[in-house]
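ok here's the first one, seq then struct tokens
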Amino acid sequence: MRNAKLFAGTSHLALAQRVATHLGVELAPVSLRRYTNRETTADLGCSVRDKDVYILQSGSMTTNDHLMEALIMVSAAKLASARKITVVMPYFPYSKQSKKKKRRGAISGKLVAGMLGVAGADHVITMDLHASQMSGFFTVPVDNLFSEPTLARWLAEHVVKDAGVANVAVVAKNAGGAKRVTALADRLGTGFALIHTDNAPSTRPFSRTPSTVALHTLPQTPRGPGMFATAVSAAMAPGSPLRSSIEQADSDSGSDPAMDLRTIVDSSKGKSKKGRGKKGKKAETPQRAAFYVSPLVAAQEQPPTPEALELGMALDAGTPGVEISEVLNQSDDDDDDALDASRLLEMVNTPADEAAPNDVEHNAEALAQAAAGILEQRTHRALSLGRRPAAVPVDTVPTDAPSIQRITSGTHLQSDPPVRPPVAVTSWHKKRTARITLVGDVRDKVVLLLDDMIDHPSSFLTAAEHLMVHCGARAVCIVAAHGLFSGSSLGEIEICPYVQSVIVTNSFPIPDELTTASSKLIQIDIAPVLAEAIRRNHNGESISYLFDRNPY
């Protein structure tokens, strides 16, 4: 590309190098330094006057540092008289905070979009925004690319081709992903399904409206004044079936039979009087009648008992509950709300960021947790085969294992079939019960559990367990555009017997230690898509071609 320079930040150098290779250019030199007080400085190592500048910086585990790094690089290019500055962010940071989730919350995604425009960016290229309406947050043009063509091509060649179109189903783990799932299913020509979870309280709110309960039992009368009183009088006449049933129910429960439906009519005849009486006192206003609801007519409308409102109780005595880890039928924007007391109980394996650990400590802790899960799986495999497990340190992972998955744009190494170790108490099991309903059929099918990103895998693992145990699925593969895998996420997926593999793109940087240690992780390369988008943007060609096609 003539009159163009491609710079890369420090968040995802491997992806930047792949993009440069596809473009046939070298990464432009830039000096990025951090002072002892964690301030960042950038110095472009070449002239960018009257040139198109492309800065590739993705979100990462240290989002704030790398975001400031990108803003400083944009400002440096602006001050160096660059003709056009385009920021390429495969994973846009703060994209999940695209709306106010609390009354006094902030829309952080809009703030980041405004910061890029203020810093001097003229164009933004990103991929799979968490909410498509985020495109309106920017004051500059934005191109939101899609990973669906790339993922669909890989899935068609390695999953659908082997299993058959009729034996594959794309499943959404919540209602918010229905549109994404149907689009991928149409592209692959497979069926689709939807998981719905009912986490409602065990009893419905008590209704005090008599028309929904008592009026259904009254005989029909002509419309007009006094029709309700006439109907009640006829229905509550001595010896009528309704009165007999109510009196019988009252005598069995020990209630006062004096309070009947007629009391409602009598108490509602009074009318409030405006003004004051002769002695200056305010006229009395008749009190509103307390509506009577017969336990025989509407037993389900009775007020809930305090014990029924406790968390952890089943919806009813005859309905078996299924343990889950979080509300699965939320919209995508609500998956990671602010932590409350119930969420803190669920995230038992997630390390607390009390002191904001640095990159080395965070990656070392995540690697140790993931490697511990991998070691447990290999030990069980050796025991199941009748061999003595070898003593392998958790910080030592062989790099030549045949089950390792590496970044690929078209081919991959086959992994060992998943084993089923004894299921212990894991973080995806929740402390309360709920109803999980699958809308669709996945029996004896390979399930592609799809979402736009995966961070904490608890909801995915819960859905996979339900699909395998209760719905008869043959295998479950998690598919996502962005793989964040914070904390011990990869370790939890590794030891989960219900997930065969997890397929993500390399839009988000994952430490090499974790990618080589995980036997279930498959990364699809999106560098060709980003390179083609940069080339077309520089040459003034249409980018909409990439929305539904794979460039290679």
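and now the second one, same deal
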Amino acid sequence: MAKTPPGDEHAPYLNPSIMEEDYDGKPTDEEFRTLRRVPGKLPIVAYLICVVEFCERASYYGIQPLISNYVNRPLPDGGNGYGAPPEGTQQTAGALGLGTVVANAVTQSFSLLAYALPMLFGWLADSKTGRFSLICWGVGVFGVAHVLMVAAGAKDLLASGTAKVPYFLSVYILSVGAAMFKPNVSPLLLDQMTTTVPKVITLADGERVIQDPESTTERVMLWFYLLINVGGFMGVATSYSEKYVGWWLAFLIPLLLYLPLPLLLWFLYKRLILHPPGGSDLGNVFRVISICIKRGGIMKVGRHGFWDLAKPSNIAAAGLNIRTAWNDDFVEDVRRTFQATGIFCFFPIQYINDNGLGSAANFLSTMLTTNGVPNDVIGNFNSLSIIAMAPVLNYGLYPLLRRLNIHYGPVARITTGLAMSSLGGAGYAILNSYAYKQSPCGEYGSTDCTIGDGVAPISIWWMAIPYAIGGISELFVNVPAYGIAYSRAPVNMRGLVSALNLFNTAIAYAIGLACSSVVRDPFLTWDFGGPAIAGGVLTIIFYFTFRHIDHEEYVLSQNKDYHLKLQGTVNVVGENELNKSVNRPAPIAENEEMMISQKQ
């Protein structure tokens, strides 16, 4: 059996013997079919955890948009020495002057580490340290990074060219801190949810509805995503600071936004539901994959019967002496999980179209007329559009569709988001094409153009359109993706499913890093146009590949004989007859769905 400390038992709603019995308010089959579903109430600590996320994201996104200008551009001629350009000019703030290729490489490697390392830290928190402890360690690492970064804004270091030492140290320390924080704060939030099973309640107007755990999860995650982007909008303040004051203030603001984090965590510690580490199924999953590949070969991957090769019954029938610590149903759980996460393979193209390949969008902004607006402030329209649209979806569109009994399923929503991101990518390509045509330096307009004003007579505010389209597309893609991961993954595999989702975001950054040599003049138009075309094609393929999921609210695990030496994870939303699995994890490892998106 899984390792379970004395006294740490499963909550009643996770006990199949209790769930098979009646409970107060349990909906009948008829009520499941006819009653409207509504979210439950959110506890106060859930909102406070969202504030924690706001502080961390504000300090992170206050820094992230500035990397490209700091590395790419030199100190402006005639500036104040702190990196700010002379007033009344079209110059951009700068510091190191290492060029677009190096700037793109630093930007992409920074984000790549922030999204790839959570695979390690998620496992570490699950099996060794616990989530809250690793969050606290991540916050400590963040503090070191911010102090070093403020030092990199010192005038003397900028003038002597030695600012790169503390700056590059701070950038990569910051990415490690973010990776420690990312995979743990969302499941900590979900640990606090109290709506755990579907329950029939009567509203004040007399309407009978089902208080639904899935709807509760959707609502709290939309709030969570909203606070992420409010934090992301703090990049406006840092962008104006670099433009008009200098790097010292641009780096000091994120440090000040970070400072409430330790106090908030101290205040929340004794008020949270916390689970000690309980182990992970990751090792057994890798062993299942290894056996399948060894027995079937690489060409068997994805074909019928591939996963059967790791089933103990199949191994025994073949007369092989391979030790296994699982049963046949666990292998089926692994198969279904990887089948479900196939949808995440389409997300890198969405992210590329949303933000541009590598630092292409930032390079485009340097070719446009700013009239005093910092070139990197425009990217905050991505967050602004999310801040504006999240409440509309949360309290407007989705409740209206539920009231009208219109099923706007998760695959349909993701398809909408993929299509919107492709349109945004096409918008970038069109705008870049016109910038090349009208720039005094032609197709080399982003390479420190010094002819005339050095920019095309096109307002930078045109970039707000593709940025906003991309931001809204995230709302349609990210939240339903995690709902699918929850409903289709077995109980003890949801942490792995979410880690795989995050890793696909890292793949998007890896693509940007690999393309660093071509994310430059004169290729920027195709840097936008190529992904936009690919995104349009993949949107169609995605819909026809996964549209059947819209007809399935949940896919059940049928593992009825739990006797494995597994340690796993459970989502706090709770297990019920719609999503039950008895491939039972350790209680201390419950609630491990990470639910992380690109904007986290």
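notes on #2: Residues 1-19, 553-600 have pLDDT under 50 and may be disordered. The radius of gyration is 25 Å.
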